[in-house]
Design goal:
The structure holds 2 protein chains of 2 kinds.
Chain A (H helix, E strand, L loop, with lengths): L2 E4 L3 E3 L5 E8 L6 E8 L5 E7 L6 E3 L7 E6 L4 E6 L8 E11 L7 E4 L3 E5 L2
Parallel strand pairs in A: 2-11
Antiparallel strand pairs in A: 1-3, 3-8, 4-5, 4-9, 5-6, 7-8, 9-10, 9-11
Chain B lengths: L3 E4 L2 E4 L4 E8 L7 E6 L6 E5 L3 E2 L7 E6 L2 E7 L8 E8 L2 E4 L3 E5 L1
Parallel strand pairs in B: 2-11
Antiparallel strand pairs in B: 1-3, 3-8, 4-5, 4-9, 5-6, 7-8, 9-10, 9-11
Chain lengths: 123, 107
């Protein structure tokens, strides 16, 4: 079955960077886009961006452009999301989440979610 | 950017009720809309995609409708397990946006 296992919680100071990893298993790694979604405490869902695991192309939400980098490693079946210039407003649970639609068709629906990684930004 | 707005923000209903959630898109999105259920401390769960397609294993009491800019999620016969927060999500040109959510509470 599809499994997305994320790296552990992080505590960072303002201005630092954080990298969250997501190990995918149980399916063909290059067949489905991977999204990153975050949720601040007590708040709603916020889409961060998406990566095509086949070619590595990415699309980021405008809010995060310039601060976020998404990569994948096909040899290890792992996705990474790095967010830089952290501020207190970036404190949130970060999820990797797999799309439902086979590449290269347009993605759009998120069916499988990792367990989440809590990133806390505090001085 | 296309935004989606949900209403109401909170809804109180009783077991057995029929409840309807609304989602409005700021521009035409055809049927590029999904609905998710999220319980406290858990990741969201996909219920409906492409406006009206039920995801595998989702009970048939959940249904979605609409196209263009107005969409609804209906629960026919509310069950105790359905109390949660519900989000709509639109897709457009490799970009996604979530609504702010509707919290379903026990009446």
């Amino acid at each position: 079955q599809v499994q997305l296992v994320q790296s552990g919680a992080e505590v960072k100071k303002p201005g630092a960077s954080v990298k969250v990893s997501c190990k995918a298993s149980g399916y063909n790694f290059t067949n489905f886009h991977m999204h990153w979604v975050r949720q601040a405490p007590g708040q709603g869902l916020e889409w961060v961006g998406i990566i095509n695991p086949s070619g590595g192309s990415t699309t980021y939400a405008k809010k995060f452009q310039g601060r976020v980098t998404m990569t994948r490693d096909t040899s290890t079946g792992t996705f990474d999301m790095e967010l830089s210039s952290l501020r207190s407003e970036d404190t949130a649970m970060y999820y990797c989440a797999r799309d439902i639609v086979l590449v290269p068709a347009a993605p759009g629906w998120i069916q499988h979610w990792g367990q989440g990684t809590l990133v806390t930004v505090s001085s | 950017d296309i935004q989606v707005t949900q209403s109401p923000s909170t809804l109180a209903a009783s077991v057995g009720d029929r409840v309807t959630f609304t989602c409005r898109a700021s521009q035409y999105i055809s049927s590029w809309l999904a609905w998710y259920q999220q319980k406290p401390g858990k990741a969201p769960k996909l219920l409906i995609y492409a406006a009206s397609s039920l995801d595998n294993g989702v009970p048939s009491r959940f249904s979605g409708s609409g196209s263009g800019t107005e969409f609804t999620l209906t629960i026919s016969g509310l069950q105790p397990d359905d109390y949660a927060t519900y989000y709509c999500q639109q897709y457009n040109s490799f970009s996604i946006a979530f609504g702010q959510g509707t919290r379903l509470e026990i009446k």
